[in-house]
Write a structure and sequence with these properties.
Layout (H helix, E strand, L loop, with lengths): L1 E8 L2 E7 L5 H7 L17 E6 L2 E3 L10 E3 L3 E3 L3 E5 L2
Parallel strand pairs: 1-7
Antiparallel strand pairs: 1-2, 3-5, 3-7, 4-6
Bound molecules: FE2/S2 (inorganic) cluster.
FE2/S2 (inorganic) cluster binds next to loops.
């Protein structure tokens, strides 16, 4: 099980405990933390978050990402992580 520390995303700062089987976007939605998204397939880039600590595994990613950015719809935690909104 992994811990996701939410660092002020839409005003929420809390920790979630997840199995790492679902995308971060889905985990956030399951906990009523709503972020921008559209395609859910790694194409549009609207779900970009900042990875502040830890590591994720990305599935399809067709959007150029800057260092530290992840696509919430395509990323699953593989360690405890901390995430925040895009700067
Ligand atoms: S929702 Fe489109 S890239 Fe994540």
């Amino acid at each position: 099980m992994f811990r996701i520390d939410i660092n002020n995303i839409n005003g929420k700062t809390e920790s979630l405990y997840v199995y790492g089987e679902q995308s971060i976007l889905t985990e956030l939605e399951d906990h009523s933390i709503l972020i921008n998204h559209s395609c859910r397939q790694g194409h549009c880039g609207s779900c970009i978050l900042q990875l502040l600590k830890g590591d994720v595994m990305h599935q399809d990613c067709l959007v150029p990402l800057s260092r530290g950015e992840i696509l919430a719809c395509q990323a699953k935690p593989i360690t405890d992580i901390e995430i925040g909104s895009r700067n």
